[in-house]
Amino acid sequence: MMNKYILIFIGSMIFVAACNLPAPASPPALNLPATLQASTPLSVSPTATAAAPAPAALTEPTGKIAFTCQLFKDVSSEQICVVNANGTDYRRLTSEDTIRHFYPSISPDGQSVVYSAYNEQTKHYEIYELNFSTNEIKQLTFALGDLNAPEISPDGTTIVLTRFYIDPERPTTWLIDRDGDNPREVSPDRAIDPTWSPDGKQILFASVVDNLTQLFIINTDGTGLRQVSQLPDLRGRSDWSPLNLIVTYSGKPWMRELFAMNPDGSEQRQISPAGGNSQGPSFSPDGQWVAFTSYFDRYEVHGCEIYIMRVDGTDLRRLTNNEYCDYQPRWGP
Description:
By secondary structure, the chain is mainly beta. It has 1 helix and 25 strands. The strands form 6 sheets. The chain has a 5-stranded antiparallel beta sheet with strand order 1-24-23-22-21, with no helix packed on it. The termini are far apart.
């Protein structure tokens, strides 16, 4: 029974962060160094953004984007959906109406999606992989703790994830082999929302220091920890492009924006058109586009949709158009 309450608490914290409700107080500072978080595309109204149209000669977005879809407007029954990068073929992937599924990420070869879902037998959030061609679902983990934010390494062999175990206030970064074997902790420091470097040798994640959430980079063997970002209200979800650019989001509730920077933290700048409460960014496989959640067209709790834009903030397009929230996008080939 206690484990059930812990799971509900963890799920509530994640939903609060994603849907912009007031978040719980920040956990205490950690033992980190002091120097050291569809439909057819629809055009956005001119009042929503000042971004100018991108030159027609630039390439169009390709691939597909997986995301969490709140079909039933209920956190406990969230599903995994996918849409093509041009806004076509929006479809639901998971089918258990009463089970929560979230944090999807498409494999580097574009053949499958990994995600977290609650398992009634183990009483934990486990990691699953769904094959796009066959719809076959494979459970990869078994009672390792409550796991979320899985992402497959660029070479396709390893999955990084966040593990909650016993203490919901101290999630840590773990690695498992692609088949779920060989679980190992990267670092004992509190960490959420991990993502891979383009070469697969480092991990970008969010953690708390001096009561502020910031982005950090660490080697996969646990060495070389360093702080990247300097943002006042960073939330956590980020991505690292093949063009060696980092994107994340920061801001007060309902006032969040996307920020890009170099991996050393330099040239930090806002890239999202202002006023959309933008969050949860993900780069396209070629690094030219960013997918994210925003509220440009319906500024209310269930108004979050999936948008894309060029990495310079131009050519904003809406991919989804629903009466429920679509969020946590992850772009794949």
